[in-house]
Amino acid sequence: MATNHLVLSGTITRSRSFKSPAGIAHSVIMLEHKSQCYEAEMLRNVYCQMQVIFSGERFESVTEQLKSGVDIEVQGFIALQQSRNGQNRLVLHAENVELKT
Q1: Tally of structural domains, the chain
Q2: pTM summary value
Q3: Exposure class string for 20-55: b at 16+ Cβ within 10 A, else e
């Protein structure tokens, strides 16, 4: 069986919430991650931004707290998403979230 599990922490830079036509609540944020990691015995600055999607009732209690400037740690799986302009990107689908601030 293949493994698809990612844990990423960072600061929310954008957020929006909406309901799908089926009535499912979704929150979409942009998570900005900055850290330092060792690679080949050298310290490297790491930076990335990743879109994170929170879907369903289980996240409705934290939706109001998922605002710009909030630090969080998210666990979930990544999937390929195609934007309206046809560009592909990896998106993190949250399975668990922990507020850090």
Answers
A1: 1
A2: 0.91
A3: eeeeebebbbbbeeeeeeeeeeeeeeeeeebbbbbe
Residue 24 lies in a domain: yes
**DSSP SS3 for 64:** helix
CA triplet 9, 10, 11: central angle to 5 degrees? 150
Contacts (Cβ under 8 Å, ≥6 apart) of 64: none
Note the pLDDT of residue 84. 87
50-62: pLDDT as tens digits: 999 999 999 988 9
Residue-wise pLDDT tens digits, 9-26: 999 999 999 999 999 999
| Single-letter code of the amino acid located at 97 | V
User: Is 1 a member of any domain?
Assistant: no
Confirm if 10 and 70 have CB atoms less than 8 A apart: no
